[in-house]
Amino acid sequence: MNSKQASYLLATLLDSYDKKALVADREFFTRLAFHFRDIVQLAYSLYGGRSHLEVWIGRLVDVLYAQHSARPKAARAVDEQRLRDPLWYLSQELVSTMFYVDRFAGDLKGLEQHIDHFCDLGINLVHLMPLLDCPEGANDGGYAVRDYRAVDPRIGTMEQLDSVIDELHKRGILVQLDLVVNHTSDQHQWAVRARGGEQKYRDYFYMYDDRTIPDEFEASMPEVFPESAPGNFTWIPDAERWVMTVFHDYQWDLNYTNPEVFLEMLDVMLFLANRGVDVLRLDAVPYLWKKIGTTGQNLDEAHTILRLFRLCLSVVAPASALMAEAVVQPSEIVRYFGTDDWAGRECEMAYHVSLMVLLWDCIATRSTQLFRRGLAGMPQIPREATWFTYIRCHDDIGLGYADDDIRACGFDPYLHRRFIVDYFTGRYPESRATGAPFMVNPRTGDARISGSAASLLGLEAALDSNDARGVDAAIDRLLLLYSIVCSIGGIPIIYYGDEVGYLNDYSYLDEPDKREDNRWMHRPRIDWNKMARLRDPQTVEGRIYARMQHLLATRKRLAELSALHQAQLLDPANDHVVAYLRYSADHRTLVLANISDVTQIVALSILEECGIEPDVADAISGQPAQLEGDYVVLRPYRFLWLRHSVFGEEQNL
Ligand code: OTU
Fold this sequence. Notes:
By secondary structure, this protein is an alpha/beta fold. Helix 16 packs antiparallel against helix 17. The termini are far apart. The model has no long low-confidence stretch (mean pLDDT 96). The protein binds 3-O-alpha-D-glucopyranosyl-D-fructose. 3-O-alpha-D-glucopyranosyl-D-fructose is lined by residues 140-141, 143, 180, 224, 247, 283-284, 286, 325-328, 394-396.
């Protein structure tokens, strides 16, 4: 369809709208007209060949207009503001956290009581993890949604969610919610009706009456949860059908080759955006399109779906940003940002999975070799995109290093990964880490890692053995990793509990529907009595908290850390030191971080090359670096943010 035809189609569609509406809602119709041709072209590339696609496009426009009409005033005001400041999410002032509302605060009411905690720590973006209605018992932490338009009654109601979001916004805190786009719970109405035999809803899923097609799919599809949910299809006795279930057997994959599914999910997305959500985290985006003979991941059509979602969201809710959850190879992750042109945009944000696993590699190997190689090999991301940088989230740590990079460092990929798993699960003799292996696949030798940051860094073992120096070292390691997460570029995530060094929580072993999934060990229930210790500088909690708070405040002050500016990775000629430069027109900050337990030195020439005087202050401590002859001395786990002001004003902070 060319642009003339698209204009003609738009004109015909608008004919059915009341003239008064066209005037009253001109912002909406202007945006629709602006994006319409791209919407139509993407729709044709995805669903072309189907008859009456114009009718479907007409229905899509109706969905957009209905959700626009339902969009609250406050959200529309934010739309206007963000249209004037479209790169708002690149600011270094953003700092985020993520948590399960029930485990953090009991329920939404409880959450309102703890907003002070975010303000005090310096958090201004909260990701409220899945909180929509889902079945009791096994529900994958809420990633098996039964009703996208209702809040889990154990957590609260939709009205309460609206009011919490309102309150958070009033306190200057943005809100992120999950949109589980790839699959629904087997208890969702669509699944229930499909099971009951309604063809319309059977077509919402990948359902087959015998193994022929499932076998063809499975021949090339890997398994996501090989231990607890092997295979990619589940037999549904009531329906006498096989249904595709890439994740758990109770999570049915939605079939986006059916355009009806797209419209349904679009409506859900806009409904959630209308709650005033600032960021929507799209779960499991690599899986949105499946094709026999492929892995069913990262297919071009999955990207087209995201582009179409992004454009539709731009018409109705331009204030909302999209975040891609894609735990795949670096070269594939960056594709979820899309391209800089309107029609090519996908998600503005994505988890920086590669940085995360490379940082854990630094800890285990005490070497930055793989880190440097891995990051240097990362493709550039579009100017308008940014990462979420983190070391821990609710999921496992998968060892997604590039095999070639491991080999180039002189290691064998299989043995290296095995070492990393052994190290963090405490099986390696010198290790003090207390993580657990997740989803060991005996067929492929793959394994991932569970455990809280503090436990993986040795805090649990040190506390258990009353090893005061071990405690100090674990705290230093935690802050070291967070110092990188806070300065390398992107929005840092302070995973809930890490601000006080939460250890593994083993209570999941007593819960039958969680026992099989050890990711629950790093999804703690927050004990607010214990949390109160964060005010006491004598406690481990207090020590970590104060340093974290200071780190975040410092980050926000340094405009050159904004994602508007790139990071330049440097080679400090010392394999135990991470070095990079962040710079803007006014400031240059050189980050040096010793990831080892031994004092390291770095030649002063690296400062010279960056145009940084040896006597500038470290922005965190306010003190200049320790120098010895022509070297900067970095004690174990020491990190410096050496800052040079071009105009001199803040030289000696
Ligand atoms: C996501 O993770 C969620 O973060 C998990 O908590 C869910 O269990 C899962 O989806 C299903 O909803 O496999 O190990 O490339 O790797 O979607 C984590 C993306 C996961 C997948 C990712 C998935």
